[in-house]
Fold:
Amino acid sequence: MSAGPLSGLRVVVTRPRAQAASLVAALESAGAMAVPVPVIAIDDPVDGGAALRSALATLESGDWLVLTSPNGADRVGRVLAEAPLLSGVRVAVVGPATSAAATSAGIRVDLMPTKAIAEGLLEVFPSPPASGGRVVLARAEVARDVLPDGLADTGWAVDDIAAYRTVAVPVDETGREQCRHADAVVFTSSSTVAHLVDAVGVGGLPPVVVSIGPATSATAAEVGVEVTLEASAHTIAGLMAALESWFSSR
Structure:
């Protein structure tokens, strides 16, 4: 841990252990002590990915593939490595982290909104052609209805496909103790909020709660958690900027 704008701050990181490296590195670079308490892991959907493989194989020119997270992009990339998309199929992503994961998986991105949330993508998504069109939405097994409902309302035929699922990781007494003695917790998804609150209770959270965006903040409110600050840019860099701005004003 080095000196920096977050020097001495103890921050709980709830991301899956395999995906926490970039956030941990950013926190430590800023002088904070990252406290890993992973509360979720990423697993195959219940059908083992059969629906995803089938949906991707039947996309036609003029159709869209929509990716809402790096996890979804990674899972789709594995399928497309064996059977690439047909020419003319376009790809939309919710934000820069998903775009980077898609690019890393060899998927060309055609559309990304300025606002890295589902509502932002709906604002810029094109209307379907007069003959109709299809969207394959590859995302978590449990997710908000905003995107599929919004796309369907504009006339698209939407296949809402589970590309992966999040499963709870038990939090032991050491993890609960670390939460109680930390200064802040960073939530990067709704599922991390729900599972940490299930594990430690609202009273077991650190005093400062940092959310990556409005959907995560909404879940926090639903389970009785007051969000201290929300990132303006819904990315790891946005989280860091919000945390550093808050800490510098204390």
In short: The radius of gyration is 19 Å.
